[in-house]
Every structure is written in C-alpha cells, then in structure tokens.
Design a protein that fits this description.
There is one protein chain. It contains 3 helices and 2 strands. The protein is mainly alpha-helical. The protein has one domain. The longest helix has 19 residues.
C-alpha cells in the first residue's frame, strides 16, 4: 500500500475520475489522521499514524499536480480523535468540532 505501483495506480485512477467528472466540481475532504485525542492525550501507534499521514500527503500532492484541482476542505486546527466516538476511539474518528466545521464548509461551498 506504500509502493510506487500503488501511487502510480492512484494517479491513473484520479486522472480517469477527473476525466469522467468532466466540468463538474469536486469537493475533497483533506484530512489527516489525528495524533492525539480530545484533551491532548497521545494516541497509540504513532508510527502507523505518521506513515498513514505521509501516504495521505503524497496522495494530496498527486491530486494537486493537475490543472483541474478539486476544492479542498482543509482544517485550520489540528484534527483530534473523539474520546467517546460511537465507533470507538481511532485516529480517523473525529469529534463534533470536526463535524460542525465540515458541515459549515460544505454548506458554504454548495450554496447557489
């Protein structure tokens, strides 16, 4: 999942997807895995989190190389994992602040 072939295939797929979308707008949620939980407690498996965030960064870099870029939703503060998420604590289960911000950005981007 971290091989050159993986990233080459991702790029091929992204190119195909953007061609298929033609002139439609694409909104992309640009998130990374959280390194800590609400309250500042570090999450376990920091090495895995770092590795996954490096992979995501590389994927976002591939996407950004194309003339036709998606509209990125980026987060002004560090993403943190929810301590009591309904599916359990995980580096990609964020808290209510995340959901509120994401909803506000989507609403603003999709208004008439």
């Amino acid at each position: 999942m971290f091989s050159s072939a993986y990233f080459d295939l991702f790029e091929d797929g992204w190119r195909y997807f953007m061609t298929a979308m033609r002139h439609k707008s694409v909104i992309l949620n640009k998130v990374f895995w959280a390194t800590e939980a609400e309250g500042g407690e570090p999450l376990p498996n920091q090495e895995l989190i770092s590795r996954q965030n490096n992979k995501l960064s590389r994927l976002y870099d591939i996407i950004s190389r194309y003339d036709r870029k998606p509209i990125f939703i980026e987060y002004p503060t560090q993403l943190v994992a929810a301590k009591h998420h309904k599916w359990g604590q995980s580096p990609f289960h964020y808290g209510e602040d995340f959901n509120t911000y994401q909803g506000e950005r989507l609403s603003a981007l999709t208004r008439g």
